[in-house]
Structures are given as C-alpha cells and as structure tokens.
C-alpha cells in the first residue's frame, strides 16, 4: 500500500470513528415486553441466553484455523440447499434464538445480537425471542452491514458459513461490509453445529426415496436428462451442478420427506454429457430406486450413486477436466447456488446462469396438467368437508385459530393420494386477518366468534399435484364495509381468470388487472398477486411472478400453473384474502404479431362466501363469470363429494354456490344502489343489456 493510500485510509478511519461516536445506534422493531428490563443489573438466564454465550465463545476460540478471531457472525435460517423450510437438524437459527419462523438472518457480536426477518413474522418473533435479541425488518432502513458496522471495530473480521449463503448475497454482504471497513470470511465449520453437539437431531432412518410413477410424472427421467444435456450443449457447458432439491426431484422423478411441505430428497446431482452422479445418503436407497435409476449399468443413461458429502472432493477433481460448468443463478424465488459450491471451482470455468431445469419443470406435460386438475378437485372436496363440519359444530363448541387449523389439515390429509401439506396453514380471525403477513401460532392464538371475518390460507401435496388456496369466511352477518371489500377483491380474481392475451405479455403487466378493483377505493395489498406452483413439488416455483414493478423477462406458456391472489386489509379491524391456482392454456388463435393467444383457466374449485358478496357491485359479466365458476364447482366437486359419501359437505357446497341473477329489474337496481354510491354500470348500459336480453326471447 502506497503512503498516499495509507494516509487516505487512516483519515477515512478517523472520520468513521468520529461519525460512529456521534451517530445513534440503529433501532429496530419496538419490543414493549423488553422495555422494563432495560437498566437492570441482573437479567434473566434462559436456555437461549446460554447458547448465545456459547456461540460467542466459539467466535473467539474455534471460528477458524487461520487468522485472528471473528468479531461478528452471520447465521441465515436456510440449509445447504438454500431451502426456507428446513429439516429439524438444520434448524440452526431456531436452536440458537428460539424463533420458529422462516426467512430470517441473525447477526451476533460479542455485545449484541439481532435478527432480520419479513414484517409478517415480526409479531411471532417478538413473542418467541429473548430480550437479548433486537428485531429488524428485512428491506428496512437498517441492513446487516449497518448494524455490524455500528458494533464492530474497524478492520475486524465477520464470519459466516458459505454453505448457507447464496453466492450473490455473499458478494453483496462482502461489498457492504468492505464499505464499513470490515472483512467477511468463510467459516466452514458451522459454529451452531459446534455448540449443538450431541443434542443435534439425527437424520431420520425411515426416509426412503420414493419413485414418482410415470403416470404422474408423464415423462421418463432419461428423456429429461437428454433434454438437459441438449440445453447445456447449447450453452457451451460440459456439466451442471444441481443443488436445488426441487430440481433434482423433478429431474430424476423421485420424491422424499427430507424437508417440511416440499416432497424432496436432500442430495446433489452432477450431470455431464457422459455421466450422472447422484450424491445422497445411501441408507435412503432401496432396490426400487436402484432399478428406477439403472445403477447397475455403465453408460451415459445410468446413474452413479455416491455418498452425500463426496460431492466436494468430486467437484475439485472434475473441475480439472471441465472447461465450462453451469451453476444456478437466482431466479425469482430461487436463490441460486451457495457460495460454497460457487467458490469450490476456479472462477474461470464457472458459468452462473438460470437453471434450464426451471423452464423444463414449469411447463407441465399433459399428464401433469391432468394430475393438477385432479389434485385440486380432491383439495376442494377437503375444504368443503372441513368447513361444513365446522359450521355444523360452530355454535356448540369453542373455536380458536389453532383448532380451525387442525380441522382443515385433518380433512385435507384424509384425502386419497394426500402426501402432506404444501405450506404452513394460516388461520387469521378478526384483527389478525387485517395483517397481510400474519402467521398463526400458539403464541398468537385467539378465539374465533361470529363477529368478524376469518381468513384461511392452506395447501396440500398430492401424488397428482400441489394446491394453494385462500378463502375468507364469516359465521355471523357481515357489515356493509366487509361486503364491499370482499366483492371488490372477488371482482379482481374473476377478471384475471377470464383474461385472453398474447403470449408475449409479461406477468407483471397482468397484475394491474387484479389490483384495479381495489385501487379504485384508493387501497392496495402488499403481497405479490401470484407465483408459479409445482406438480407435487414446491408451492412457490419460478419463473413466474405476478408483481407489478418487477421487471421480469419471463412470459406465460401453455402448461404453466400459477396462483392468483388479491386482498384488502383494514387495520385493526378485518381483512379479506382470496387465492386461486390458474392454468395457462392455448386458445388455438394467433395475435396479428404472430404470438399465440393464451388464456387462464381456474383449477382451484372452492366456493366463495355468498354472504359476503354484494351482487349490486358486480357487473353482469362478473356475475356470469361467478355463476360459471360455481357451476363448475357443483359439477366437479359435487361428483367427488358424492363419491366420498359426504352429503353434509355436498349440501353445504350447493348452498354456497347458488346461482345469482345476472340482471336486476330497474326498480330493484335503483333500490339496491340508492344515491348512486354503488353504481357498477351506467343506467343506459344497463337498459341496453336488458333490452338485448328480452328481444331474442320475443323472437
């Protein structure tokens, strides 16, 4: 370093120190429960406090075999494959902090500890975390680097496990910490694992890999490998390291139970033009898997099974042969490849590119499409059974959010070919329903009555497909505001389902169609309108994301499935949320530009709440769309409920899907829209439609 640079760095250090002294330390989420403990000499000792002290000790003595100790440590809630929901033995952040949610990152120094998470989990975290921990909102005003910069001296080291951090996020942290004159270093021996020791849960012994039969997958795994190799050759790559568990499950037509809510097997795969290597715990391999993957032969269409951890030595070996190897880049919900995988190979041979498997998987084949429709019929029947049973017992039993959650999950898991849940079931009542990101738990559980709205968001995994649905119910009588909010949200869902559009339309441009129905009341909902969904896979699947303001280069294709969601949230009062899964179909027509005209088709078949629908706020077209949707439910779900022999659920469903009049006589219309405050169609247009309807009848 030259003298000039040394002086310049010294001056910057002095300025930063002076600024740090003058600046107030960052302040996070207000934790009222912790206020009374401030200034007390003696703080309560808990199990999590002891673990925090043990981690700080590891930061000093066992953080790294090279260099001095680390003064800060960053711990994400993800696992080695960057999953948000992780197995019990990978719940490191939960073990250290007590926080049971997901999508969180912790930062620890010798004198402080903080957690960053999404706003929807803040209330849950406040109830679960000790007062040792500060809470900050992800994408808020205080970043991890800001917080560490205010608590760690200059030129000190901050450590993190590179196996748990996406490569691009690692590079971002590295830059931000460098701006604070801190250095991010790799700590390959996870510090939480060191203090967890013998208490860390073992890998369950009964997690045998299951074959996804061709009748559900619709395609042999060998054909998928050939297509992947073709795409790799097109990109000029010799091989690909596959780290995403959902991509591996799709590619090899296998499923497992290694992590919650997603039927995957914890493993790695390397695909080259000549070899297929499958890295997995050998105890999970059965004779059926050996036969399925053809492990007894030695050509390019046979899979060679190796131990899970052998991938690291193999990467170093084959990196001397490969000239270009593809590792996954981030794509919408997919976080890409971990820093450990990326940095295990020479940078000159690494090609960071969106995984071709994402696009192969997103476009479902005909068998997968039929399976998704069948799964949603089973799921619709489950919701009808659970809600009809609950309504029948509502006045004679006490109900809470957690009890309703149990009821919904019980009926769903009793369906044919049900393999589990696809997401954490959310049951939100009253003022909880007004929280867009509320997560129900034992900490936040409240009693449910007939005075307000009940939002239920849930989904299931079936051999045929994956479901994701939200509905809003009321057991009493709704207010005018509730009906207006619900009807506007419903109108947006109906509008999107009937859309026909050219194939070059971006998903983000579709978002306004749904939101426009709530925008007209000068309100909005914070979550994205939609995301892709897998076939007996992940409930959130790239590349589709329906969210305005997100500049995405991906387009809808025939065979894609995605969710359509809308909501309304009145703070401290009530909320409305509706979500369906839609299928993208080809209309058979072409746009003048040459692009195919595509359309959406409802796959979710769960009744809406008729007590919350104000028909005077719906146009005749919207009423027709609702009647058509209800008729489909009566036909498909009705047949399923009769097959199951559940006539109580059948009659409940029939009552919820009654036909509504699409046109009102003028006197009824004027009475319903007194004062013109709810006019959904101009009077002239209404008269024209009435006359048009009468004339054919007379002829």
Automatic annotation (TrEMBL):
Pfam families noted in UniProt: Creatinase_N (PF01321), Creatinase_N_2 (PF16189), Peptidase_M24 (PF00557), Peptidase_M24_C (PF16188)
Extent of the signal sequence: 1-23
Residue span(s) of domain Creatinase N-terminal: 89-187
Transmembrane segments: none
GO CC annotation terms, alphabetical: cytoplasm
Keywords associated with the record: Aminopeptidase, Hydrolase, Metal-binding, Protease, Signal
Span of domain Peptidase M24 C-terminal: 597-660
All residue ranges annotated as the Peptidase M24 domain in the record: 371-584
Record GO terms (molecular function): metal ion binding; metalloaminopeptidase activity
Family annotation (InterPro entries): Creatin/AminoP/Spt16_N (IPR029149), Creatinase/aminopeptidase-like (IPR036005), Creatinase_N (IPR000587), Pept_M24 (IPR000994), Pept_M24B (IPR033740), Peptidase_M24_C (IPR032416), X-Pro_aminopeptidase_P (IPR050422)
Family classification: Belongs to the peptidase M24B family.
Protein name per its UniProtKB record: Xaa-Pro aminopeptidase 2
Species assigned in the record: Drosophila pseudoobscura pseudoobscura
Gene: LOC4800874
């Amino acid at each position: 370093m030259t003298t000039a640079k040394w002086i310049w760095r010294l001056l910057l250090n002095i300025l930063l120190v002076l600024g740090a002294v003058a600046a107030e330390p960052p302040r996070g989420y207000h934790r009222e429960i912790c206020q009374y403990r401030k200034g007390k000499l003696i703080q309560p000792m808990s199990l999590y406090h002891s673990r925090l002290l043990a981690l700080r000790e590891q930061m000093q003595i066992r953080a790294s075999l090279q260099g001095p100790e680390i003064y800060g440590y960053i711990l994400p809630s993800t696992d080695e494959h960057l999953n948000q929901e992780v197995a019990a033995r990978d719940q490191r952040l939960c073990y250290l902090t007590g926080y049971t949610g997901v999508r969180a990152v912790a930062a620890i120094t010798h004198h402080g500890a903080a957690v960053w998470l999404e706003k929807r989990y803040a209330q849950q975290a406040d109830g679960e975390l000790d007062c040792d921990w500060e809470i900050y909102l992800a994408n808020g005003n205080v970043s991890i680097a800001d917080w560490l910069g205010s608590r760690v001296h200059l030129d000190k080291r901050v450590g993190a496990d590179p196996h748990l951090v996406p490569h691009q996020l690692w590079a971002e942290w590295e830059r931000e910490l460098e701006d604070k004159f801190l250095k991010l270093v790799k700590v390959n021996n996870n510090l939480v694992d060191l203090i967890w020791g013998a208490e860390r849960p073992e890998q369950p012994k009964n997690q045998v890999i299951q074959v996804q039969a061709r009748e559900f997958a619709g395609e042999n795994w060998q054909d998928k490998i050939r297509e992947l190799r073709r795409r790799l050759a097109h990109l000029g790559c010799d091989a690909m390291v596959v780290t995403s568990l959902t991509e591996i499950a799709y590619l090899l037509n296998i499923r497992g139970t290694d992590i919650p809510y997603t039927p995957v097997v914890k493993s790695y795969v390397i695909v080259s033009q000549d070899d297929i290597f499958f890295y997995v715990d050998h105890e999970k391999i059965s004779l059926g898997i050996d036969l399925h993957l053809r492990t007894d032969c030695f050509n390019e269409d046979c899979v060679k099974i190796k131990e899970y951890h052998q991938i690291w030595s193999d990467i170093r070996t084959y990196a001397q042969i490969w000239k270009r190897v593809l590792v996954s880049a981030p794509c919408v919900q997919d976080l890409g490849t971990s820093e450990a995988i990326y940095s295990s190979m020479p940078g000159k041979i690494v090609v960071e590119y969106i995984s071709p498997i994402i696009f192969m998987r997103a476009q479902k084949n005909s068998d997968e499409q039929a399976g998704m429709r069948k799964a949603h019929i089973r799921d619709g029947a489950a919701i009808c059974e659970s809600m009809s049973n609950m309504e029948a017992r509502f006045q004679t039993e006490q109900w809470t959010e957690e009890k309703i959650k149990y009821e919904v999950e019980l009926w769903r898991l009793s369906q044919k070919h049900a393999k589990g849940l696809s997401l954490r079931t959310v049951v939100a009542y009253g003022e909880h329903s007004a929280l867009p990101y509320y997560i129900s738990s034992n900490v936040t559980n409240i009693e449910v009555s007939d005075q307000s709205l009940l939002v239920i968001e849930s989904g299931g995994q079936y051999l045929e497909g994956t479901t994701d649905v939200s509905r809003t119910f009321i057991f009493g009588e709704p207010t005018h505001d509730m009906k207006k909010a619900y009807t506007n949200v419903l109108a947006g869902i109906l509008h999107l389902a009937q859309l026909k559009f050219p194939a070059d339309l971006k998903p983000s441009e579709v978002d306004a169609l749904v939101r426009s129905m709530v925008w007209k009341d000068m309100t909005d909902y914070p979550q994205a309108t939609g995301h892709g969904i897998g076939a007996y896979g992940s409930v959130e699947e790239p590349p589709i994301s329906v969210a305005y303001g997100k500049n995405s280069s991906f387009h809808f294709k025939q065979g894609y499935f995605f969710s359509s969601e809308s909501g309304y949230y009145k703070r401290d009062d009530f909320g409305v949320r509706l979500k369906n899964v839609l299928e993208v179909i080809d209309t058979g027509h072409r746009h003048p530009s040459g692009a195919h005209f595509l359309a959406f088709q409802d796959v979710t078949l769960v009744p809406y709440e008729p007590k919350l629908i104000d028909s005077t706020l719906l146009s005749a077209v919207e009423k027709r769309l609702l009647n058509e949707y209800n008729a489909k439910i009566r036909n498909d779900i009705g047949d399923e409920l009769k097959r199951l022999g559940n006539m109580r659920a059948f009659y409940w469903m029939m009552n919820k899907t009654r036909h509504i009049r699409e046109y009102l006589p003028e006197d009824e219309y004027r009475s319903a829209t007194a004062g013109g405050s709810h006019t959904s169609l101009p009077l002239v247009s209404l008269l024209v439609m009435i006359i048009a309807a009468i004339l054919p009848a007379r002829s």
